[in-house]
């Protein structure tokens, strides 16, 4: 897990990465990661122990969609509670910020054709709100092919579909800041155990080397 993640992270010029069974699992495990953090008891009792830690996940109302399964179901699997910001057809940075409370664990931004596009704040704006409130930003980019931009825009965790983004078999990829990715990896001893990918799936994700490498090269050229 660590070697594969480090290899992918190097290709994409990110701090770290981890391969998961699918993008939906990536959402659930990322949510669990920002709630559990270093709490060893909560890691193994996420849905049964009384939780005093923040567990609200704020996302634009127009992003709370059904992509084949509801986004809020994936959040709930990760121990989170969805808080919708703004309206079905509008969410500004101010509206996103107004939905943040002391119980907020993270901001979730869904980059998908399923979502409302018009009058929605950008990833960069969501990242700025997250920074101002000292919160992590999770970007669900499952169907996206751009493997570097959202991380560079300030997202702490970005989730991709291995099948869609890097043209491999069913798998998921989570890239991001080292500490947050470490907490996602830790979920292999929690809810992630039930989402364990087959070894073939992990090696299949590696088969997307060329696309990953090309994405990293393009980013380095842009930075240079």
UniProtKB/TrEMBL annotation:
Give GO terms: molecular function aspect only: L-seryl-tRNA(Sec) selenium transferase activity
**Keyword Transcription carried by entry:** no
This protein's cofactor list reads: pyridoxal 5'-phosphate
Q: Which InterPro entries match?
A: PyrdxlP-dep_Trfase, PyrdxlP-dep_Trfase_major, SelA-like
Q: In which domain of life is the source organism classified?
A: Bacteria
> Which UniProt keyword terms apply here?
Pyridoxal phosphate
Query: What residue spans carry the region label Disordered?
Result: 192-224
- Provide the positions where the record notes the PTM N6-(pyridoxal phosphate)lysine: 164
Q: PANTHER family recorded for this chain?
A: L-SERYL-TRNA(SEC) SELENIUM TRANSFERASE (PTHR32328:SF0)
Q: Which family does it belong to?
A: Belongs to the SelA family.
Q: What is this protein called?
A: Selenocysteine synthase
Species of origin reads Serratia rubidaea
